[in-house]
Design brief:
51% of the residues lie in helices and 15% in strands. By secondary structure, the protein is an alpha/beta fold. The protein has two domains: 241 residues, NAD(P)-binding Rossmann-like Domain (Rossmann fold), CATH 3.40.50; 43 residues, no CATH class.
Length: 291
Amino acid sequence: MKTKVWFITGASRGFGFEIAKAALANGDKVVATVRSQPEKLSGTLKHDNLLVVTLDVTSETHVQAAVQKAIAHFGRIDILVNNAGFGLLGAVEEASDKEVRESFETNVFGLLNVTRGVLPHMRSQRSGHIINLSSVVGLTSPPGWGIYAATKFAVEGINEGLAAELKPLGISVTAVEPGFFRTNFLDGSSLSTTRQVIDDYKETAGYMRSAATQLNYNQPGDPVKLAAAILTLADSSNPPVHLPLGNDTLHYFKQKMDNLNQELLAWNDLSRSTDFNDSQAGNQSQSSTNE
């Protein structure tokens, strides 16, 4: 396999850091973007094939500048990893308009900014792979995670449409849905909680807030193994549109599919009752003509 050039957002910690580290160890070249203090990451990874770029994904101007630096330095971008984002924990009603908009600004609109910035280069190459970091809550939304899940549901929709649009151009698109991995996601560096707390939700979103504290740094997933899985994905000649990672994700996705199938069966008759009966209308029209 030829040496790949990676463009990874949110590379200062967590999944982004581990993926960058693994790609460099694999002999690839990496453009690692961070919101601030690029010298810290440069000092930690210390590699000739590493270019660290400061990037605020919510700014199209920043994105265009970062992509141009990447192209000028390495000549191409083969793999885009849209990893930058943060969580918001709290009941849907508890989330303020400002908190919701900030979440979508980074997790959805930021992802779109970077994707639009990189795609002209991938289209000109007629090759590339976009890997969108979604989540276990990208297809199922537990209490307390409704707003964060909404951003990841949006990523899933973008991912599927983009995959269909780019396949004829030789560009692959994959949504990776990690479960709970032992990163710093659940502490204050990557997770916000709603400022408002409503007592009526103490058994649902409130319970989830407490559970997240207990789960922090006790998650079952190994981020180093996730990074290795991403490298395997990047080497695939026929990558999937969805890649769930973690036994917990597989459990929750199967549960979601089982519940959905049960609802489809239970409400099948009502679901089928809303179409026009064109054959009956046609028969009535023919009967009127014959008379």
